[in-house]
Amino acid sequence: MAExxxxxxxxxVVDRVGNFITxxxxxxxxxxxxxxxxxxxxxxxxxxxMGEAAPTLKDILLLFIYLEVLAMVGIYFRTHRLPVRxxxxxxITALTRVLVVDMKAMSMEEILVxxxxxxxxxxxxxxxxxxxxxxPSQPPIE
Length: 142
Fold this sequence. Notes:
Layout: H1 2-50, H2 57-79, H3 84-102, H4 108-134
Helix pairs in contact: 1-2, 2-3, 3-4
C-alpha cells in the first residue's frame, strides 16, 4: 500500500515537472517567434526607409503579416489561447499579397484560384466568429 502511495506521489511530481518544462519551452518558443517577427519587421522597415522608392503595397502587406503574428503571440501570452482566426487572417493577407504582387504574371485560372481561396478563408472566418458567438467555450477549470 505504501508503495502505491509513493508511485502516485512520484507520478504527481513527474507531472508537475513535465508541465513546467513544457510550459517553459512553449513560452520560450513564443518569445523567440515574437523576437524573430520584430527583427524581421525592423529589417523590412530598414528596407523601406533606406530604399530610394516609396514603400510598395507588397511591403505594406508584409508588415500586416508581421503585425498579425505579433498580435497572435500577444493574445496567447495574455489569454493562453491560440486564436485560430488570426492564423486565417495571416493566410488571407499572404494570399492577397501574392495576388497583388504577381497578378500581372498570373493566368486567369491562377487569379481565380487565389481569389477563391481568399473567399473560402473569409467564409471560414465568418463560420469561426459565428461558432464562437453561438457556442462560446468555457475556460478550463484549474
